[in-house]
Structure formats: structure tokens, C-alpha cells
Amino acid sequence: MTPPPKLLVLVGSPRREGNSFVLAEAVKRGAESRGTSVTLRHLDDHITHFLRDCRSCRHENGECSIDDGFRGLFFDDFLPADGVVFATPIYWYGMSAQTKAFFDRTFCYYAASYPDSSDVIQGMTRKRIGLVLASEETYPGASLGIVHQVQEYARYTHSEFIGAVRGFGNRRGEVERDPGGAVEEAERMGKELFVRKFSDYRIDTERSGGVWS
User: Fold this and answer.
1) Residue 185: phi, psi to the nearest 5?
2) Most CB atoms within 10 A, among 48, 81, 195, 204?
3) From 2.40.160.40, 3.30.200.20, 3.40.190.10, 3.40.50.360, which CATH number describes the 6-192 domain?
4) Of 141, 173, 143, 193, residue with least CA distance to 23
């Protein structure tokens, strides 16, 4: 029997039980309803430092010298995952510092100066990527920078960015009252993460004249 796909949901909000967490829980709920194996982590529990200069910071054996929980999160949860959903509030029209630090800290292990970087790169590639965002502001442009960054990360790692969900709310859990149905949309993302159609055509891509068979 084929084992169920593994999904990692990373919550980048420093506020527990906030709107980002509500959306992340909805993704988890939806994914588990399809039999997906889901791990949800709060980045605040694992990252306490930003990336440093690896040339002066790295141990002689190539290991990162920053003593927090990032290594375990990265190797035990992120690299084995078949899909990852990032859940972050919108801060100053970008992702939270915790979420950005996660991306930055991966450099220590995929850089050529890490002895097993080729294995790390293999584990970083070809995932299914999703994004859920929470913000008080409804201005459509507020999320464009984050969506573009995650989209380009997916492209860079030969992964598939299957979409973004954005919910509106400021008070703790207020996103549940969003009339646009963001919580339901996040749950649907979880259900469909590994089955949702993804296409990224080039001019020479062979394809039929229709989208759905």
C-alpha cells in the first residue's frame, strides 16, 4: 500500500491562536480528511536567530553553529514533506520575519560548504507549495509581494505553487467571520493540495486545446 503524502504546515505568526493559525488549522483539517499525514509547526518554537555569515559561523564539520531548533525542523519535518503550506500574517506588505527567517536559514544546508548539500537540495525540490495569508487590510495589492516571493521560491526549487488563500481579520480568530469564506477555502486547499491541477506552460509545451478532459 502506498503511504499517504506528508504535508507540513508552518505557522509564521508570533501570536498563538491568531488568524494565521485558524487558517493553518483549516488546511490541516482539510488535508487530514483526505488521509494526508499532516504536521503543523509554529516557527517561533524552532527559530530564535536570523541567518549569520556562514563563512565565519559554520563549524569545521560544516554544521550550522546556531543552537536553536531550526535544524530539527528542517531535516525532520521539511525535507521529508511532499508538500508545504506557509501560513503568515501580512506585515508591512511582506511575510513575517519568522517566515522569512525560515527561508534564509535553509541556505546553511544547501550551500556547497555543507558536506551533504546535494542530499539537502534533493529534499528541497519537487514539493507542492501552498500559501495562506491573514491581514486586516483588504487592499488587493497588499499580498502581491509575498505571493510573488513564494511563487519564485517554488520555481527555483522545481516545486509546484498551487495557490494562495487570503483571509481578513485583525482580532484573534476574526478571520472566521470573513464573509469571503477564507477558512473554508483554506480547508479546501488542504483537501486538494496533492490533486489540484497545476500547469505552467511554455511556448513549446505540448498540450490539447482544452483544460479539462
Assistant:
1) -65, -40
2) 81
3) 3.40.50.360
4) 173
